[in-house]
Amino acid sequence: MNKERGMKNLLAGLLLLSIVSLSPEASAQASRQRKQMGNLTLRKLKSEIPPAKATRKKRVRARNVGLIKPPSSKKFYIYDDDPRKAEYNRLVDEEIRKLYKLSKQYKRSRSRGEIWLRLGERYVEKAQIIDFKLQDAYDKKLKAYNEGKTKVKPRPPSRREVRDYHKRALRLYEWFVRDFPKDRKVPQALYFLGYNNFEIGNLKKGEKYYLQLTRRFPNSVYVSESHFALGEYYFEKEQWKKALAEYMKVVDQRRSRLFTFALYKASWCYYRGGAYKTALSTLTKVIKISRGSRSEEAVEGTRAVDKMRLAKEAVGDFVSFYEQTGRYKQAYDDFYDIARSEKRSLAMIEQLAYRYSYAGNLTAAHYLFKQLISLNPTAPEAAKYQYQLVQDYNSTGRVKAFRKELAVWLDQFGAGSSWADANKGNPKVISENFELQESTLRNSTLQLHQQALNARTDYSKKLAAGSYKMYLTYFKGAKNYSEMLFFYGELLYDLRDYAGAAQQYERVALTDKKSKYFEKAVTNNVLAREKGIPSNKVMEARRSSLSNKLEQIPLDPSVKAFERSALIYLKNFPRGEKALEIKRRLGTIYYAHNQFDDSQKVLRQIIKERPRSKDAVIAAEIILDIHRLRNNLDLYQKEGLEFLANPTIANSPYGKELKVNLQKAKFLVADKFSNSGNNLKAAKAFEAFAAANPRSDQAHSALFNAATNFAKAGAIFDSIRMYKQVIAKPGRKAILSLKQDARNSLGSVYKKLGQLREAAIHYESYGRNAKGPKAINALFNAAVIWDALNEYKKAFQVYNLYANLDKVKNKGVQEAAWAKAEMYRRQKMWSKAIYQYDAFIKSNSPNLDRMIKAHFHIADFYSKIRNVRKAIEWHNKVIRVVNNTSRGMKLGAKYAAQSQFRISRELLSEMRRTKLGNTDASITKGLSNMQAIQKRLVKDMAKVIKYDYGPMVVAALAADAESNEIISQTFKNIPVPKEYAKGDVRKQFLDMAKQQANEFNIKAIAGYRNAFNKGLALKAYGDAMLDSAEALYRLDPEGFKNAGEVNDVGQIVDMMGI
Amino acid sequence: MRKMKILSALLLGLFLLVSCQTGDKSGDSSGEEAKVNLDAEEKQELAERQEKVGGSHSKLRTLYKAKRHRELLSEAAKILSKDEYDLRALSILGIHHMDQREFGAARIMFEKALEKHPDEPGLFNNIGVILLREDNLESALLSFKKAHDLQRNNPVVQANLGSIYVKYMDYVEAEPLVEDSYSRMSENNIVANNYAIVLRTQGQYEDAQKVYEKALARDSRNISTNLNYAILLVEYMKKYEKARQIVNKIEFLNPNDKYVLRKIKDLQRKVAAAK
After folding, report:
1. pLDDT value, residue A678
2. Taking CB atoms and an 8 Å cutoff, what residues of chain B touch A753?
3. CB contact (8 A) between residue A1058 and residue B25
4. CATH code where residue B120 lies
5. How far is B24 from chain A (nearest CA, A)?
């Protein structure tokens, strides 16, 4: 029997152990969830059947014991693999079978009550075994489901059999209370009635039995059990106050078996009611009491409470309660006080840290985790603590803290860290941590990338880029490495760091063909590399800087990179969606770099593969253009015809293009001749092209080119014939400018041929109909020619037209005014010439030479039209303009000399106008006046001489001589004053006058001679010399024997061999 | 030597001046162009084409002398189509324009010819003639001097340059030029007239008289020659009877030059006084 009991205790212990193994200590999180539910770990207590009492034998009605017959126990065995549990179950079944047999055997005996109580107790025990088994099986299935081992979510087990046993027990206890109402074990029976009713869900009925027990038998040991059970009942219903009251009634019984347990439950009621401090102090009390050696009463039919277990539970709950106090910085000391071991204290700290972490109190969690790490930085768990911190900051969006802790995690717990070194014996920990780190950083990076895509700010993009860099630094070789490379590339592309992006794409393309992003990486690599290719403008500039325009240009590193990316694409996806386009791009790049062979090779592939595509058209054009650039027009036409020989190509739009291109080729053949200087061949080819393609858009150009090439070759009349065809050939507006150019060219050609009238007509026509500088120049040329041909009216009109068009610095007005003035000057139309010279002066021409001349001509012409006042005015202007600058002196000294002479010469007229009167006084005054004028004349003529212009030096000397001649004449013709009218005085006066006349005459002759000789010496031929000679011959015919013959000067034209 | 340098500088100035007046502005700005590089085949064909065009200097002379102006222009164009700087064609065109008093056009031709024939004295001479007609004595003198420097024995140039010296009574300069020109152009009355004047200044009245009479035998109506002859007879040879005939003839020719008229009256007065 003892052995049997020992075996039962062992099995019960094992059962409890199996439950404990599923208990919350397994993981802090599971524990937390469980504890929040407020579930108990209390298990059904084993009861003993009380010994039967001797009672009066009386007639009793036999009970239908079939109602309490146990079900077959065979099926329980299948649930249990543990042989010890199976043994226990077998023993319970055996006992039930025996007791049932006894109950049948003694169904009218007085001892039947005792048998019923014991059988009822076994039924309760059996119900618990089944319940445990069902729950155990359910838990296992649930675990498998949660672990993903099965997809079928298990249903909670049916408790029908469990309830069946409870119901059988209820019948036995009801029979007992009814048949033995005054038995000493009625309280026990009432207690189990309450208990079994609770178990089958008859809560009210169960409560009624408990209340009946506490009222009828207040001193019974089962009262405490009942209060506790009621407490449990209210606890389940979360009626914390009511539950607390029931528990406290148990607590009041210090010796109660459930005292500590009730205290424990009371602490939970406080906790759930929000009285955390009371809850914590109560729990502390539970721990301390549980560890004490105080004995408690034993209750029949119940099992002693496992106080050690309870203490352990309480210690576990302590952390939960402690969490609410917020005293995390003192936690270690407080926990050590309770746990009395460092290990346990650290476990509690860990638990508390996690609790704070889950509750979102990151300050406390950070403190505690860091405390744990610092206490043992190389512990395997240390990495998890750091990870938890990283997670916490990540989940709460505290980016900076997250990145900081992440860096700490990677540095201090990553590969190569001292932590990793210390744990190298535990590869599982290392690999798990590595995977965790990798996934965390990867997810975070991808999250940042997503955020960057949403925010579209540079800051967010750079943040993500930094994260990628960190990942790619730490996790080289990770299975997601190439994926991250790809996405890093995507981000850099988004950041417009195309070279950087391409670098990432290319690494994927070269290292991970199996990546699901492989194709995208290869494609995007091409796209990113393409961004680094120099623009057409840049390439044009490069080519234009070459001395040999067709010299190969080496590919830049960026272009080489593009070439590499394109070749990677074409190698991996030769028939890819973008293969054609990439080939075309590659071909055009080679083309731009003058790498013609490579270009043609690639472009020919396009034409071969996709003859109908647009790319094929472009490819064909470039291929032909390369031939053209190489001046290989034979090959151009040959290959062009080959393209057309293929009916598919010929009938395609490309074919039409090609036909046009071949037509162009003929044009280009002519162009080639022209460029090589074979102008006659070029002209003929252009003419032939125009004849063969009269409706072509290029027909006019061909005719024009034929004309220019004929002209260059020297076939001028053919050139004229072609130009005339250009003008005569009808065409669209677009070729109007060509017609105008033809007119201009005709003007030029006719001028070369000496046909000035024709030249002027065509120049004028071009100038009137075309626009631009060339047209303005043509008008000027036309005007000059008309002027040269004495077609003054036409010249005048065209000059006016030109004046209105050439507005660069008022040049048109200046040139036209000058030309018109000169035109009038040549025609001796003095007034009109004055007007135009004046217009020229007012146009503010910068041409000082012309300005001086214009002033002088105006002065001169005013003299010619006898407007002396104006003439003098303008001569003075001439002098001012010339004297104003040294350049003026250099350019206009001769004009200034002439002007000064003209002004000064007026003094001679003044002398001649002098009236002497007929009195001594008036004559004396008149002669004095003449002398004074002569002095002024001499002074003024000195100014003339100062300009050092030969003819005017002569003129000045001649003027001086003339003044003496005037005085001589005056004395010759002097009137005799009244005062000397008679007698000797008259004679004396006339003799004296004659003498004076002779003296001045001698001076005049000497002066004229001097002037004439000076003219000869200086070769200063001019009117002054002639006038001096005439005067000399007049005054001194014997001394100067030139009688004044006339001759025709310089009129003989050299017929030059005609 | 220094004189030559100064002369060259002045000539440069003259050409700048002349170019400005002509004022051609190029309308062609086609930029860099390939040089003409005809191959043998092309040259052959070009020769054939030009042959077909025709054009000859002899025909040009004929047309000029016949004053068939339109045909003259056409013939000159044919020649110029083969060589746009053909000296004879351009010269004839220039002279033709001078005949038409189209001095601007004439100068265009002579200047163009000068571009390729800068040592041709006839061109400078003719430009000098034009400049004198435009009353530009200084430039004309320079042009004649340039012509004379290029060909010192060119009688036309000598005559024109000499005529200027004669007019301005610079007989030292005039004498050799006039004498030389007369030796080869004695039939030219202008040359003869100048030569006679020079002879007169040297006191060779008889020789001068012969020259005048020879000239008048060719052109008895030349007023200048008649007047100068009359002056010689009255002022230097005192042959009043002969002089009277000549003066009467001049009067009969009805000159309108004021100087000539004044001189006639003067001579008439002296002839009458001599009676």
Report:
1. 93
2. 76-77, 80-81, 84
3. no
4. 1.25.40.10
5. 6
Tokens standing for residue A147: 């672990």
Selected residues 674-733 of chain A with any CB under 8 Å from a CB in chain B: 674-681, 712-718
Shortest distance between the Cα of A487 and any Cα of chain B, in A, equals 55
Q: Do B126 and A1054 touch (CB under 8 A)?
A: yes
Nearest CA in chain B to A684: B42
Q: Is B115 on the interface with A (CB under 8 A)?
A: no
pLDDT single digits (tens) A128-139: 888 888 888 888
Cβ-contact B164, B177 below 8 angstroms? no
Mean pLDDT of the region A447-460: 84
**pLDDT at residue B100, as a whole number:** 93
**Residue B253: inside a domain:** no
Rounded to a whole number of angstroms, the distance between the first and last alpha carbons of chain B is 56
CA distance readout (Å), A520 to A151, A472, A524, A527, A565: 36, 19, 6, 10, 12
Is the model's pLDDT at A39 over the cut of 50?
no
Say yes or no: B205 contacts chain A, CB-CB below 8 A.
Answer: no
pLDDT greater than 60 at residue B26: no
CA distance B159 to chain A (A): 7
Q: How far apart are CA A594 and CA A846, in angstroms?
A: 50
A2 band by pLDDT with thresholds 50, 70 and 90: very low
Digit-coded pLDDT (tens) for B114-161: 999 999 999 999 999 999 998 899 999 999 999 999 999 999 999 999
DSSP string, A933-978: HHHHHHHHHHHHHHT--HHHHHHHHHHHHHHHHHHHHHHHTPPPPG
Q: Pick from B25, B100, B163: which is nearest to A1047 by CB?
A: B163
Residue B230, domain member (yes or no): no
Residue B51: its chain A contacts at CB < 8 A? none
Tell me if A1050 and B163 make a contact (CB, 8 A cut-off).
Answer: yes
Q: Which domain holds residue B6?
A: 1-19+55-151
Among A9-23, A487-501, B233-247, the minimum mean pLDDT is found in: A9-23
Residue B185 covered by a domain: no
**B72 inside 8 A of chain A by CB:** no
Instruction: Kindly report the average pLDDT of chain A as a whole number.
Output: 84
A328: left (phi > 0), else alpha (psi -120 to 50), else beta?
A: alpha
Residue B134 belongs to some domain of the structure: yes
Residue B237 to residues A285, A1030, A1041, B207, B214: CA-CA distances in angstroms?
176, 20, 13, 12, 18
**Helix and strand numbers, DSSP H then E, in chain B:** 15, 0
Q: Which of A1049, A1051, A1058 to mutate to test the interface with B (most CBs of B within 10 A)?
A: A1049
Task: State in Å, rounded, how far the first CA of chain A is from the last one.
Answer: 169
- The tens digit of pLDDT for each residue in A208-234 reads 888 888 888 888 878 888 888 888 878
Task: Kindly report, residue by residue over A827-842, the tens digit of the pLDDT.
Answer: 899 999 999 999 999 9
Domain ranges of chain A: 376-471, 677-731, 904-1035
Name the token pair of A459. Answer: 């800051």
- Coil, strand or helix: which one is A981? coil
Percent of chain B whose predicted confidence (pLDDT) is above 70: 87
Question: Minimal Cα distance from A1028: which residue of B?
Answer: B168
Separation in Å, CA of B111 to nearest CA in chain A: 12
pTM above 0.80, yes or no: no
- Total structural domains in chain B? 1
Q: How far apart are alpha carbons A994 and A351 in whole angstroms?
A: 155
- Pick A168 or A665 by higher pLDDT: A168
The per-residue pLDDT for A302 is 54
